[in-house]
Amino acid sequence: MLVQQLINGLTLGSVYALIALGYTMVYGIIELINFAHGEIYMLGAYIGMITFGFLTAFYLTSPSPAAALLLMMVAAMLYCGACGVTMERVAYRPLRSAPRLSPLISALGVSIFLQNFVMLAQGPRDKGFPHLLAGWGIDLFGGRISAIQIFILAGTVVMMVALELLVHRTKIGKAMRATAQDREMAALVGVDVNSVISVTFLIGSALAAVAGVMVGMYYGLINFFIGYMAGIKAFTAAVLGGIGSMPGAMLGGLLLGLIESFGAGYISSEYKDVFAFAILVLVLIFRPTGLLGEDTSKRA
Amino acid sequence: MERLRIWLATLTLVTVLGATHAQAASTIKIGTAGPMTGDQGAFGQEIKNGVIIAVDEWNAKGGVLGKKIEIVWGDDQRDPKQAVAVANKFVNEGVAGVIGHFNSSCSIPASTIYHDGKLVQITPASTNPAFTERGLWNVFRACGRDDQQGSVAAAFIAKKLKRTKVAVLHDKTTYGQGLADETVKALEKAGIKPVYYGGITQGDKDYRPVLTAVKQKGPEVLFYGGIYPEAILVTKQMRELGMKASFVSGDGVWTKDYIEIAGKDAEGAFITFTPDQTKIKEAQEVIKKHRERFGSDVGAYTVYSYVAANMLLDAIAATKSTDGPKIADYIRKTKWNTALGPIQFDNKGDVLVSPYVVWEVKNGKFVELK
């Protein structure tokens, strides 16, 4: 039971972490809580499903499910990346010098728009998501880890390593860190702040798209509303880890997943959200900046 | 100038709204409420289709009281708060009566508002006993009750399946927990004490943690009180965790979506529901019309909604009024011949006879067990 709950919790946590990264990256750079981020995740799941439909129509899924899966993820990443960039251009950039509340409300507007758009385009009912990796799993120390769980855990690790390398080893990563530290100063030394912000939205949205496809397959069921709860959970994870901090988002996501899983398994599944949010409150009382967050008052 | 313009705009808007309102008075409105969108949209659609077929028939005959019938839709999104908002909207719009809601957790809070607004409410689907147990004059239920359904499920587990290790999960809603509790009560009478009892949260997607804990208790049967979106996930995830227990649930799961999305994991699930509607002679007409109009077979509660709408309209026509208490009186006193066969209500608003039977999922279809 312990091992099984650990596996459940880590899988769930990885997904939260992937979505939380998008929140935290955007916050780190323009100090905006992008409430439409959960919707991008939902879009990712839908694009994955639609791509699968196309591939099946041309008999391309049966020879190699793995390649089909890869294509689904790439399509979702491209589409959601483009959505993220457009969203920033249309809804946030014109408001960049406005009071902080304005882009926040704009974000809520984008969220409502995307939800209703998908509802009208794809219908309000649940859709079954194709399960390409069904069937096999490995028994491990009394627990059972399924193929999809391995896929989610491995995928998350790959994504996170790639992101770390990007941020700390490349020029654009350096520009991102500079913009996060001080946007005006970065502009003065020649960083193209606008394109850095666009890239941030692109990467954050692509990560959410990956999460969308993985979770769609994990649960086998998607609807236009899944972005809401996932968004709230990921936002909680980002705040728990310290919003603005990327390692914080990863840690926060994993912790949240584990707390929920163990809380539901050992104490009571009815109160599992209570544990998660109670821990959040406690952390915020004793460490207002989150577990790994820096003191933002210095920056302001 | 700017202020003047806003004023003018407001005035125009008010005039337009007033005009549509005045125009609408030449029709008789009936309210129809349920989860039209959201994860339970499939059930909302069933109610919608049933009412559409009934109202079309009436309008083709010239409407009721010499006026055309207009359906006013209310989408409660299975959320009790929304249901109350919908109820207030119906009262304000002056509907003559209400068909709905679907979820007991929506029907019950909405019913007090209909009561204060003197509107008759006929639910086609809410099975929680409390709906009719509070002494309201305006509520009717065309379907059965969970205490009846729960005892059928318990008897099936104890006598047919002959299992004693039963785990019980519910979705913490009025319907889900109510059905689970009624089943537990009946199980305990048969000397079976559940090895696990717990709730899950509606709208969540990951039930593996709680199912892992359930698996630990080694149940032979998992009874689930709730609606199909969560039932699909519970079914899939329990199989994924390697649980072999039989899945048993209630009418909230009896929908095509459950079988289609849960796929082969749904095979062998047992669902309590009313006997096969497609075998009722009187229902054939509706079933045929539904196929012609919507291109699909009727759902669990389509015919119920059709019947409910017909009873409401019949009562309006017979009493020649849209007065709530009069309509309620008529519905209570009448011996109905409906598309579901003869129906009669008791004083509380429950149907006198409501048989529940057990269905099994076999080869991707619901099959009634004999």
Provide the descriptors you would attach to this structure in a database record.
heterodimer; A: 300 residues; mainly alpha; two-stranded antiparallel ribbon; two-stranded antiparallel sheet; 4 strands; 75% helix; B: 370 residues; alpha/beta; Rossmann fold; seven-stranded mixed β-sheet; five-stranded parallel β-sheet; 12 helices; globular
Overview of the structural elements:
The complex is a heterodimer of chains A (300) and B (370). In chain A, strands 1-4 form a two-stranded antiparallel ribbon. Chain A has a two-stranded antiparallel sheet with strand order 2-3. Chain A has one domain. The radius of gyration of chain A is 19 Å and the shape is globular. With 300 residues, chain A is mainly α. Chain A contains twelve helices and four strands. In chain B, helix 2 packs parallel to helix 11 (302-319). In chain B, strand 11 (336-338) and strand 12 form a beta hairpin. Chain B has two domains: 2-144 and 280-343, Rossmann fold, CATH 3.40.50; 146-273, Rossmann fold. Chain B is globular and about 65 Å long. The model of chain B has no long low-confidence stretch (mean pLDDT 89). With 370 residues, chain B is α/β, with parallel strands linked by helices. In chain B, the strands form three sheets. Chain B has a seven-stranded mixed sheet with strand order 7-6-8-9-10-13-14. A five-stranded parallel sheet of chain B has the order 2-1-3-4-5, sandwiched between helices. In chain B, strands 11-12 form a two-stranded antiparallel sheet. The longest helix of chain B has 23 residues, at 2-24. Chain B contains twelve helices and 14 strands.
